[in-house]
Amino acid sequence: MTVLSAAISTKSGKPLISRQYKQLTRSRVEGLLNSFPKLIPLGSQHTTVETENIRFVYQPLDELYLVLITNKGSNILQDIESLSLFSRITIDIIKQHTQDAVIAHAFDLLVAWDEIISLGYRDNNSLIQVKSLLEMESHEEKIQEIIAKNKEMEAKEELKRRARALEMQRREAARIGAQTGLSAGKYSSSSELNLSPSIDARPTEAATSAPTQPTQSSSFKGSGMKLGKKKTTIDNF
């Protein structure tokens, strides 16, 4: 058998989800599904309708249709058997035959259908095998989610560690800057203290050297007075 497409549509032929297994354009699939309800005879109990080139194998789901689109060369008995497996796995997933349920579980339905049909041909998987494969995929998906969450947590911890390291660097830089400023203040204060005595020492030296000049002049005047006395003595003689 060759399954061209699997779909769930409304009773009016509006597609809700569709999975193509052969190269069919979207417009082509939508056109086939829109024309499909018009081909069903009123009160028909059959589950297949045909056109010139296409066969529709379908099953009503309350207000919906589960449809397999195949070519006319496909084995109709295998088509009906495949439809039965599609129907059982679809009902098991969506629980309720409503548009909202189909749309909410669209991804799960497509994954399950891919376990039944591969490249347009039926895989030899029973309902139990399909469910087992879906559970395995679900388990692997959970593992991947756990790994992704762990990576996210590790990334957050790394960001926190870097933030703490940067904060410590800022505090260390501030501490070193404060110590450097304090040392510069001490150096400038000590320099001022060392300069003040040297400035005061200069007037002292000038004060000690100044009285030496009057001493020389007074001694000179004393010797002059002695010469005057000698002149007076000569006159007396």
Give structural notes.
It is a single chain. The protein is of the alpha+beta class and 237 residues long. The protein folds into 2 domains: 3-125, Beta-Lactamase; 126-195. It is built from 6 helices and 7 strands. It has helices at residues 26-39, 76-94, 99-104, 106-114, 127-209, 212-236, and strands spanning 3-10, 15-20, 48-50, 54-61, 64-71, 117-118, 121-122. Strands 2-1-5-4-3 form a 5-stranded antiparallel beta sheet, sandwiched between helices. Strands 6-7 form a two-stranded antiparallel ribbon. A hairpin with a 2-residue loop joins strand 4 and strand 5. The protein is elongated, with a radius of gyration of 55 Å. The chain starts with a strand and ends with a helix. Residues 203-237 have low confidence and may be disordered.
Q: Which architecture name of the largest domain does CATH use? A: 2-Layer Sandwich
Uncertain parts? 203-237
Number of helices: 6
Outline the biggest β-sheet. Answer: 5 strands, antiparallel
The portion of residues forming beta strands comes to 15-25%
Total E-strand runs: 7
From the spread of the alpha carbons, the general shape counts as elongated
**Overall radius of gyration:** 55 Å
Main location: cytoplasm
GO biological process, one term: endoplasmic reticulum to Golgi vesicle-mediated transport
Family: Belongs to the adaptor complexes medium subunit family. Delta-COP subfamily.
Biased composition (Low complexity): 188-219
Short synopsis of the structure:
The chain has helices at 26-39, 76-94, 99-104, 106-114, 127-209, 212-236; strands spanning 3-10, 15-20, 48-50, 54-61, 64-71, 117-118, 121-122. The chain is of the alpha+beta class and 237 residues long.
